[in-house]
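User: Assemble these into one structure.

Assistant: Restating your components, then the assembled model:
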Amino acid sequence: MGKLVIANNLTLTYENTPIIKSANFTINSGDFVFLTGISGSGKTTIIKSLYGELKPHSGSLRVGEFDLFNIKKSHLSLLRQHLGIVFQDFKLIPEWNILKNVMLPLLIAGINKKEAENLAIKYLNKVKLSHKADKFPAELSGGEQQRAAIARATIHNPVMILADEPISGLDEYSASLVMDLFKKANKLGITIIIASHSIPSAFDIEFRQLHIEKGKVYELS
Amino acid sequence: MSSLKSHLTLILALTSILFSIFIFRIFSEILYKYKQTIIDNYSIVIVSTNKLTPPDINNLGELKQININSELKKLKQKYKNIDFSNIKLPYFYKLKLNTLPSPRELNNIKEELLNKPFIKKIMTKSSSQTKIYNLLMLLEIISKIFMFLTTILGFLLIIKQLEVWKLLHNERMYIMELFGAPFWFRGAALFKIAFIDALIALILTSILIIITINSFIFEKIITDLGIDFHIDILKEILLLFVISFLISFISSIIVVIGRK
């Protein structure tokens, strides 16, 4: 399996304070990775750096063919079009209904509206939300919004899904549904990186754990 | 309601800018035509001992010799005891200026001409010309101030609108950016609003223009001034169309680029 993410001596800072110090790690295509650590350890910082929201301070960080240290704006857009991102606060567009929110990556990719709509309905069906396609995000529960966000993150068949605390704040049932969706996506070959303070109990598929402590990234086996 | 309000702000701002630009242009055109009318009826009389050519008067305007034969004939009949053949009469010229001079410019012209040894006398209609000139300048300044203030007010409203747009559209554009949406895609909704608002503002301004130029007062002013005045409505609307769309699209582009 090819290396999808390569970090060499990666240092990430937030407002000039080093959060991640000289980290070295690689993530292969098809990996299911949990990025763990206590609150404020730098999980979100790494996730943000992987989708280009945060520029590395020093070292190197490659995602696929893109060097995130010197990435151009047009290349960043291209990279993001091949990623699926899931946020703790869902980041659904409030003035769009769920169907249109799920269609977003397809519309960005230039797929025609009708085709995008049909595929979005199919994905909403997968996440058991087809009956709420015309609802707006504010009309859905947290668990439902996160499922819609996962449908949006997977609809364009991304190479990698980055999820930042996706089950934090969800009830046990919703959290289990969301994790199942990630597992299904991984079985289809999509690389999954989930930032989470802990690994869900009885997690039954093979995964890797990258643990962050005092700015250092360790692989736990 | 807030969406309607935000539309109204831009439409109002654009309409006021467009209408003030139209008023300024029309006013400038009327003033120009009126100045031309004054220039056509205005001239300086030059009395010279020599025959004059345009370079002799520094090419200040069109020079026409006044035919004094009929006046001379009258004088000969009146003063039969005077032998006019022994008198060398000066040459009389009418100088039609290229532009309407200010009172100061007129004085300078007079001094400049009188400094030439062959020019003996200059006659101007200075008092009436000064009044007309001052009145025209006053009207021109008022129209410029009117346009300046309305445009400033319009732009202040647009700046306020940009702030509102930033708040309204920031979240959606940020989410789109996270999914790799290109610039045109992120700004699509704003560009659509900008297009609709620019179109509405243009329609409103066109209605105002038609009402204005067909009004009794406007027609009376043109008739009283005695000028040949014609407005190419289509050209004016086309110009305002370009201005309207440029302002609204530049505003929306500023919001999309300025997103943090």
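Chain B touches chain A at residues 171-172, 175-182, 185 (CB under 8 Å).
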